[in-house]
Design brief:
about 850 residues; alpha+beta
Length: about 850
C-alpha cells in the first residue's frame, strides 16, 4: 500500500512567510509612524493666519490680511511696528530659507550641513561678506538702523515663540536658529550683490587665451558690442523725426538738468535676481552665469489705457521655496508719510525691492558692471608685499569655521591694500592674487527712500545712493512719465578696464574714483515712448566711461524692442505674452546658415540632409515639442568646438582638469554668440580651420557632429531626429534641497524635472536651473489691474496651501491679479490676523 508523506519543506516555508509578514508589518508600521510624526511636526509649524495673536514687542496692533495666494498686506500705524511685523510675517513663511541664506553668505554651512561645505565656507570667509555687512550696518542712518532693528525683533519674536514648533528642516538637521540681527539682514543684501557680480575668473582666463592666441584673435573672442545693441537712452528716429539730443557733447556742462524731459544724461547718442543646502559655487571658477532679466516700460501712447505699462521679470537661479517673497506694506499715518508700497521682498531684508507705491513703479535688470579687479601682488620672503611706497606688511584676519563632523578649520585671510589674497580660490594658480571689489569700499541702503519716492526727481535722488548691485532701472508714474536710470558704484581706472589682471605693485591701474551718478545713462520720456533693457549694452557709441567689459548678448533686448515697436496698443496681457515669448533670433539665424551650408556641401550625409529639412521648416520658436531647436543648438555648440579646438586645444577627458588646462572649453563669455555670429557672417580666413576648404564645409561638419548618434560626444542623438524634443533636452528642475531627497516626499516637495519651452536667448530666458524669478506688470492707469506671480509660492512649509500654488501659472504662462487699493485688498481677503502688543 502506497503511503503519502507531507513534504518536509512546508513547515519551514510557513515559518519564513510568517517572519516576512511580521517584518513587512513592522516596516509598514514604522513607516506609518514616521509619516505620522513628519505630518504632525510639519503641520505644527504652519503659521497662524487668522484671529488675534499677542506678540511681545509691538506698540500698537498690526493687521495682516492675506489674499488667495497667501500674500500679506501689513497695516501698521508707525514704521517700527510695520517692519517688526514684516520680520515676523516673513519668518512665519520663510524662516529656514532666511537662516540658510545668512549661513550661505557668511560661510557657516559646514556647521549644520557637514564638512562637504568647508570649501564653500572657506571661500566666503576669504571674500569677507560678513565683514562687509558689519561695516554696512555701522554706516546706517539712525532711521535705517531703527527699521533694521525692528525687523530683527520681529523675526526673533517669532523664533522665540516657536522654539518647539520650528519648521521641519530645523528638526531634521537638529539645530535651532540663533537670534536675527541687523547685520544678518545686511548680509542678505550683500549675498545678492555676490550673486549678480561677474566673475573675475574671466580676467584670468582671458589672460591665458591672450598669451595663446595674440591680441587680434583674442579681441574677436571677447567682443563687447553688436549691431543688435539697443542702448535704452537712444531712441531710433522715425522717418519724419531726427533723434533728439544727437548733437549733445559728452564733455558739455556737467550741471545739465538730467531730469528734464527727453534728456539723455552725459551721452552722445548716434543716430539710430537660496534655499539650502545649496551646492558650493566657487567665486572664481564655478560661479554660474546669470541668465539675466528683462524690464521695459511703454508710455500711454502705446497702451490701451493711455497710461504707462511697466513689466519686469528678473531671471535668477531657481530654488525651493522661490527667491522672492511678495508683500504689501502700509503705514497709514502722517508720521510715516502714508507709506504704501507693494512688490517682492528678499526674505530676511526689510522693505520692498521691486514693485510700486501709490504713484510710481520700477523694475530691475542687472547692469553687470565691472566692479571686481584682480591684482598680482609681489611678496618677499618676510611676508611683505610691494607697494609704490615700498614693502608693506599685510593685515591678517583669522576665521574659525565650525564643522558638524570635523574639528574646526582655521583660515588666515591675508589682506593687501587692494583686498584679500584669493589665490587659494583659483585652481592651479601660484601667483599671489588680490581682489579689489567695490563692496569693500562700503554699501549704502536707500530702499526706504526708493519705496517712498513720489516722482522722478525723488526716485533719482534715492537711486543716487544705490551702490550695489549695479542695476538698470525702468520707471513709470501715474502722471504718464516713463524713464530709465543706470545705478551703481562703478570704478574709474587710471588705465585699463579691469578685463585683465594687473600689477599690484604700482599705481598704473588703480581706481581713481567712481563714475558720477549724473553721468550714468539716464533718460526721461524719450520720443519713442519705449524703454527696455535685458542686460545687454546700455552705453551708446562714444560714451566716456567703461561701465562693463562683459555685457550680455543682445538677442533678448533686440526681440523686446522689435515687439514693442510693432505699433499696436498694448494691454497687461500683451506684456505677459512678451515675458513668455520663446522666439530665438540667434538660433533662427544659425538654423538658416546650417541649411544653406548643407544645401551647398559636396557630400552631406543622409542625417545631415534630414536635419536640414527639419530646420528648413522651423519658425525659430524654442518649443518644447520641436526637434529643430535641439538640432540648431547642438550644431551651434559643435561649430564652437570645431572653431576653437584647433586654436585652444581639446578638452581633457578628466573633468577635474578643465579648470587648470587651457582648452576650447575654457572660453566662456556672455557675448560668445556674437563672436560666433561675426565669424559666420564675415567668414574670416583667420578663423577657418585648416581641415576645411570653406565655411559651408565647416558648418556642414557641425551639423554632422550634432546629429551623430555616437554617445562619445556626450549625447546620443536618436535615430529618428524628429523625436529629439527640445523640452526633454532643455528641461527645468526645481526641488527642495532636503525633502527632495526623500522618496516619499519628492513628489510633493517641488515641481521636479519638467520639459519646458524657451532658451537662454529667448525673452523667456530659461535653463535647467535658472529662469524668471517673478513676472510683474504694473498698470499705471489702474494699479488694481496690475499682475504678479512668483515661481512656486509664498510659503516654505510643505503642507501650506501656498507652498506651490503659483507653479502652474508660472509654468503654463498665466498670472494673477495683484490688488493694491484698500477696497481691492479687502475684496481679495482670504485671511486676517491681528498682531497685538
Amino acid at each position: 500500500m502506497a503511503t503519502i508523506s507531507t513534504p518536509v519543506f512546508r513547515r519551514p516555508r510557513l515559518r519564513i512567510l510568517r517572519v516576512v509578514a511580521i517584518g513587512l508589518s513592522v516596516t509598514l508600521l514604522a513607516a506609518l509612524v514616521i509619516c505620522a510624526w513628519f505630518y504632525s511636526m510639519a503641520r505644527s509649524a504652519l503659521p497662524q493666519l487668522d484671529g488675534r495673536l499677542r506678540v511681545s514687542g509691538l506698540s500698537a496692533p498690526v493687521t495682516v490680511v492675506r489674499d488667495a495666494h497667501g500674500a500679506p498686506t501689513i497695516d501698521a500705524t508707525n514704521f517700527d511696528d510695520l517692519f517688526f511685523a514684516q520680520g515676523y510675517v516673513t519668518a512665519q513663511d520663510r524662516l529656514f530659507q532666511m537662516d540658510g541664506t545668512r549661513r550661505f553668505a557668511a560661510g557657516e554651512l559646514a556647521e549644520v550641513f557637514g564638512s562637504d561645505y568647508l570649501e564653500h565656507d572657506r571661500q566666503q570667509r576669504i571674500l569677507g561678506l560678513k565683514v562687509v555687512a558689519r561695516k554696512m550696518v555701522e554706516t546706517f542712518s539712525a532711521e535705517d538702523r531703527s527699521h533694521y532693528e525692528a525687523y530683527a525683533r520681529g523675526v526673533n519674536a517669532y523664533i522665540e515663540a516657536h522654539r518647539e514648533r520650528l519648521p521641519l528642516e530645523f528638526r531634521i538637521l537638529r539645530y535651532s536658529p540663533r537670534p536675527w540681527t541687523p547685520e544678518d539682514s545686511a548680509l542678505i543684501g550683500v549675498q545678492m550683490v555676490e550673486d549678480l557680480s561677474t566673475s573675475p575668473r574671466h580676467a584670468l582666463m582671458r589672460e591665458k587665451i591672450l598669451a595663446k592666441l595674440g591680441p587680434e584673435l583674442t579681441a574677436d573672442l571677447y567682443v563687447n558690442s553688436s549691431w543688435h545693441d539697443r542702448p535704452p537712452t537712444v531712441s531710433r528716429p522715425s522717418l519724419d523725426q531726427e533723434i533728439k539730443g544727437s548733437d549733445q557733447d559728452d564733455d558739455e556742462d556737467e550741471d545739465d538738468d538730467s531730469g528734464s524731459d527727453s534728456s539723455v544724461t552725459g551721452l552722445t547718442p548716434p543716430p539710430g535676481i537660496p534655499a539650502l543646502p545649496p551646492q558650493p559655487e566657487m567665486f572664481f571658477d564655478q560661479r554660474p552665469r546669470v541668465l539675466g532679466s528683462n524690464d521695459w516700460v511703454v508710455s500711454g501712447a502705446h497702451t490701451v489705457s493711455g497710461k504707462p505699462l511697466l513689466s519686469n521679470d528678473m531671471h535668477l537661479r531657481h530654488q525651493m521655496p522661490n527667491l522672492w517673497y511678495e508683500a504689501h506694506l502700509r503705514c497709514g499715518n502722517a508720521s510715516c508719510g502714508n507709506f504704501d508700497v507693494a512688490g517682492v521682498t528678499l526674505p530676511g531684508l526689510p522693505y520692498v525691492i521691486v514693485g510700486h507705491n501709490q504713484r510710481i513703479a520700477w523694475g530691475f535688470t542687472n547692469l553687470g558692471p565691472t566692479v571686481e579687479d584682480v591684482y598680482v601682488e609681489t611678496f618677499n620672503s618676510d611676508g611683505q608685499y610691494l607697494t609704490p611706497e615700498g614693502w608693506k606688511q599685510p593685515e591678517h584676519r583669522r576665521e574659525v569655521i565650525h564643522a558638524k563632523d570635523k574639528p574646526d578649520a582655521i583660515v588666515d585671510v591675508v589682506l593687501t591694500r587692494h583686498g584679500p589674497i584669493v589665490t587659494d580660490l583659483v585652481p592651479g594658480e601660484t601667483r599671489r592674487l588680490a581682489l579689489r571689489w567695490t563692496l569693500y569700499d562700503g554699501m549704502r541702503s536707500p530702499l526706504l527712500a526708493i519705496d517712498s519716492a513720489q516722482n522722478w526727481e525723488e526716485f533719482r535722488r534715492a537711486f543716487s545712493e544705490f551702490d550695489a548691485p549695479g542695476q538698470n532701472v525702468v520707471y513709470a508714474d501715474v502722471d504718464g512719465n516713463i524713464g530709465y536710470q543706470a545705478t551703481g558704484k562703478i570704478p574709474i581706472r587710471a588705465t585699463g578696464d579691469g578685463s585683465l589682471p594687473e600689477d599690484g605693485s604700482d599705481n598704473a591701474h588703480e581706481w581713481v574714483g567712481y563714475v558720477p551718478f549724473e553721468k550714468l545713462p539716464s533718460v526721461l520720456n524719450p520720443p519713442s515712448g519705449i524703454i527696455a533693457t535685458a542686460n545687454s549694452r546700455i552705453t551708446p557709441d562714444g560714451y566716456r566711461y567703461s561701465l562693463s567689459t562683459e555685457w550680455e548678448a543682445p538677442w533678448r533686448s533686440a526681440r523686446i524692442y522689435r515687439v514693442l515697436e510693432s505699433g499696436k496698443k498694448f494691454s497687461a496681457a500683451d506684456m505677459l505674452a512678451l515675458e513668455t515669448d520663446i522666439y530665438s533670433e540667434l538660433d533662427r539665424f544659425f538654423g538658416e546658415r546650417f541649411v544653406y551650408a548643407v544645401d551647398h556641401a559636396k557630400n552631406p550625409s543622409v542625417r545631415a540632409k534630414s536635419a536640414a529639412e527639419i530646420l528648413r521648416q522651423w519658425d525659430g520658436r524654442m518649443t518644447e515639442n520641436s526637434a529643430a531647436p535641439t538640432i540648431a543648438v547642438r550644431a551651434r555648440q559643435e561649430l564652437t568646438r570645431l572653431l576653437l579646438d584647433p586654436k585652444l586645444g581639446s578638452a581633457p577627458k578628466d573633468p577635474h582638469q578643465l579648470e587648470t588646462t587651457l582648452s576650447w572649453k575654457s572660453y566662456a563669455w556672455m557675448m560668445s554668440t556674437v563672436w560666433l555670429e561675426n565669424v559666420v557672417q564675415h567668414q574670416p580666413k583667420s578663423w577657418l580651420p585648416e581641415a576645411y576648404a570653406n565655411y559651408d564645409d565647416l558648418l556642414t561638419a557641425a551639423i554632422e557632429a550634432a546629429v551623430d548618434s555616437n554617445p562619445a560626444h556626450g549625447w546620443d542623438a536618436p535615430q529618428d531626429l524628429n523625436s529629439w524634443k527640445w523640452g526633454d533636452f532643455h528641461p527645468v528642475e526645481i526641488q527642495h534641497p532636503i525633502f527632495g531627497k526623500i522618496p516619499l516626499l519628492r513628489h510633493w516637495s517641488g515641481p521636479g524635472l519638467q520639459a519646458q519651452s524657451g532658451s537662454e536667448y529667448t525673452v523667456k530666458a530659461v535653463s535647467r536651473s535658472h529662469g524668471p524669478s517673478e513676472r510683474m506688470t504694473v498698470d499705471l492707469g489702474n494699479l488694481d489691474q496690475s499682475t504678479l506671480n512668483l515661481v512656486t509660492g509664498e510659503a516654505g512649509n510643505l503642507f501650506s496651501p501656498y507652498y506651490i500654488d503659483q507653479w502652474k501659472g508660472w509654468y503654463e504662462g498665466f498670472t494673477f491679479a495683484w490688488p493694491f487699493s484698500g477696497a481691492a485688498v479687502e475684496k481679495a481677503r482670504a485671511h486676517e490676523l491681528v498682531l497685538e502688543p
